[in-house]
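Incident log entry.

Two folding requests arrived from the same account within the same minute. Monitoring flagged them as a possible duplicate submission, but the sequences differ. Recording both here for audit purposes.

Request one:
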Amino acid sequence: MTLNVHAYTLRPSFRAALLGFLVHHNPFYLLSALSMLAGCYALNSGLAARTGDLPKLLALLGVLNAYEAILIGLGLYLIRRRGIVRDGRTLLLLQAAFLVDLAFLDAEVGSVSVRTGCLLDVLVLTLALLKAGVVVRALWGRVPRQLFAFVALQLGVLFLLPSVFTQFRQHQNGNVTPGQFYGAWWVVGALMILYELQARFLRHEAAFDTGLRLFIRRLYVALPLTSIVLHLSLLHWVYRVPFVAGDLSPLLIGAAFVLGRSAHASRGDIRLIRMLMPLAAVILSAEHAPAWRLPLAARFDLTPTLLVMGMAYVTIVYCFFFARALRLLVGAVAVALLVLFGPTLDQIVAGVVWTWERGMVAFRWLADRSAIEWGLTAMGAAFAFLALGAGISLRKEPVTEPVAASE
């Protein structure tokens, strides 16, 4: 009898716990997003992005954008009208994952053809900017220009990247070079550097954001960049171009800049990490450099190692010697110009040897002079120096008041 009572009393508590979990965490939004991602992956593999499948790709894009519109509308309604911030934030987080093409649908679209892929990329980019603008406009009451411009730049790189590599492949007999991938990794590093520069030199909008706004700002800044890294890594596999450790150098340089936005940037361990990142970038580039070379002058080629060394110098100057950055950077530019367009090492050695020989000839000539010749030379020099002194004195303004004899 007692066992039946316990069994009866435990059953409602389990139901209450399960119901409380479902109400508090509401996992159905996540299950819905995972189902949509699974459907996109399955359809991507089935469509194979052929030209004849373009209507199917457009239909898939339409379904995905309709799903995102529902996520945005429901999320903003829960936040603005019902005050249910937790569920609304979850919906906006899931929508941001589809916004930055974590379903990898744009990679299929960009591989259709160069012209068609570019047109579809522009269409997808326009829709993405429209969706991002709706979210930030609803949460901020306006469109933060600094945030929106940076998000638009990242989304532009993300959506146009597959079409750019398709263009490379068509002009190079179906091949994409490691140097082109290395340039793409530098685009990612440049985005990270640009984020730090615009936050430092422009009005930092994030200083006024808290709560949900700060969450969305960080999400819209970090998630597109993460998606670009994932897409670029996937393109390495698609085009059979090996990924080497030297490709990480631009990311390490960019991360050293981005750490300046950390609230703990002045801590000793963070400063040490920022110092070690450029050095690690140089080591990786020197040990495992990608096959890339850029001719700059008749006798000089820019290699990955030299490029990373220069950027590492700029990073260290910016991070630790910002007060003297102008003088240090100008000096570095002067040295670089001297290396590029100045005399070569053989020319410098030849100039030193010529100067030494002419100096020794002049020294022997002076050593062979007699005392009379030296005396006459010294007297001539005395008159010359006297003339120079008189010329300087006569060029001075005359004194208007008479000077006393005692003075």
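Request two (distinct sequence, not a duplicate):
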Amino acid sequence: MVLVVAACGSADDPEEAATVATSVATEPTAATVVSTTTVATTTTTTSTVAPVTTTPTTTAPTTTTTAPPTTTIAPTTTTTPGGPYFAGVPDLYPPTPLPGSDGAGASGCAPGAGALPDGVWFGYVRAIGSTTVELDLACFYFGDIAYTEGAEDGEEVNNDYYVRNVNPTLRTVPVATVATVYEIEATSGGFLTVPFVDWPVDPSGYIACPSDWCGVWLFVNGGDATEILEQYIP
């Protein structure tokens, strides 16, 4: 650094025209060393991890419906709607209604006048001949319909069956020479299989035949009764 000092005299004094120069030695200027410190910058890399989105799994509840078992007691007596008609394995239950029976058992009870057509017919055997029976045709209802039909007639119904017998007409029905009769055995409640010519084995058995209460089913084929099945009445 240089410092210059100038002394000025009066302009009116010529002798003092000399210029006094005062030189001031300049001190050496100390070098200023700036120490540059390089600081390494630590770069921190932040990894961004995408959050894992968990989709909840919804399990639909399993609904189990248990249907109550339905027990249907079906008679084992079999008939064929178009014939031939046969008892098959005899059973204490009445035959099921066939088409056109209007709810009565088997073929119903409205065959029209004259000889019985082929089918399965209920009635009371009033007389037994060597090759014929005298039949009082009746309507046999079984199950819920028995209560309905009985109520229509003003009758009290018990034990799931009702017999309507309003026509006293007797029909002479021919019986085949090889016809089989299923007779209810009094002590066991089972059936005896006997030829028609030997029926009844026990006239005073469970059902007294012939009589006003000798209820049977006639299986008619070709105009003749080929099987006769006694009907259990509780």
